[in-house]
Specification:
single chain, about 160 residues, alpha+beta, Alpha-Beta Plaits, 6-stranded antiparallel beta sheet, two-stranded antiparallel ribbon
């Protein structure tokens, strides 16, 4: 079983409800065992900034799925929850990103692990480090060192997804 970390985000409609629904769908999959769910953080948008703030969280899971199979499941969950891909980095009901998959490094057109922007994004680092404070990149660099470069004002703790 591989240890995997996912980042989830939503900024359309009932943001917590979309996060809950995505987690529920992942938990139903026979080859995915969700181990930890981080608190929810609210953050401003990146890239396309003319949109609502995001709710973000991180998951730790174990899976027997390959990275490519897991990506297909993540995309399927996004499709079920009506994600639209109209504007790059634009509004979305749900976004699921594979952040880390064991110590693998993959560089393909539609799949990059570790997630290429993870180390510069507070909305990824804050929830991820809540559930895995000692997690490291495949290179051995601890992710905690990157969080210190993110202004704390960009990240607001909201609570648990169940709240």
């Amino acid at each position: 079983m591989a240890k995997v970390y996912l980042g989830l985000g939503s900024n359309i409609g009932k943001r917590k409800a979309y996060l809950r629904a995505a987690i529920k769908l992942l938990k139903k999959h026979k080859d995915i065992d969700v181990k930890k769910v981080s608190p929810v953080y609210e953050t401003g948008p990146e890239g396309y900034i003319e949109q609502r703030k995001f709710y973000n969280l991180a998951l730790e899971l174990e899976t027997s799925l390959s990275p490519r199979e897991l990506l297909k499941i993540c995309n399927f969950v996004e499709d079920l929850l009506k994600r639209k891909r109209e504007i790059k980095w634009g509004p979305r009901t749900i976004d699921l990103d594979i952040l880390l998959y064991d110590k693998l490094e993959i560089m393909e057109d539609d799949l990059e692990i570790p997630h290429p922007l993870m180390c510069s994004r507070g909305f990824v680092l804050a929830p991820l480090l809540e559930i895995a404070p000692d997690v490291k990149l495949p290179s051995g660099d601890p992710l905690m060192k990157f969080l210190n470069k993110i202004p704390p004002s960009q990240i607001k703790l909201i609570g648990r997804v169940e709240d």
